[in-house]
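New here. Your pick:
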Amino acid sequence: MKDDARLGRMTENDLEKLYARARSPEEHRTAAAQLATLAEGEHSLDVDVSPAALLVSAGEHLSAAGDQEAAVEMFRRAASSRGHVPPDVRCYLHHGLLEVGDLDAAHQVAEELRREGPVDGDVYLFIGEDYELADDLREAHRWFTRGVFRSVKRIEDGDDDAAENAVGLMMARSRVRRSLGLPLDEYDELVITSPDT
């Protein structure tokens, strides 16, 4: 990371460029260390991104470097740091925990999110896709279904922004239902008859 980026205004765009420039595991580790230092250091108030966002980015660098355990540690630190990381910083921690095979801890994070009933449909999509990638299709189905129900309720309450979430969740849910051999239901029918699919 250049000194002017570290000491000046770091934006989300700067984080993306930093990630794109890192070509080797060593470059990813170096970037992760710089981001973690920036998140904790005296310059943390001079950036446009929160400490949590800096630590999530550091975790993504470590994951790209193949150091999943260290990535999880960064995601843990991010979850207890200041700032919102869409859709929820704990989604990144959940993903990392599944990557390292800590299924119990991942389940605890998912349950904490479930109890809070997130409004953002992307939380349900993120967690559901994590479980789908981990080949836990029943848990993926549960998360996609929760997200569909939540998004449909928001649409019924007049929230037009929820429509995009609903479509993505219905498509993911339908895909998992096919893999599970479940019969078509009303939401599957909507996906099948949608002109966008």
In short: The two ends are 42 Å apart (CA to CA).
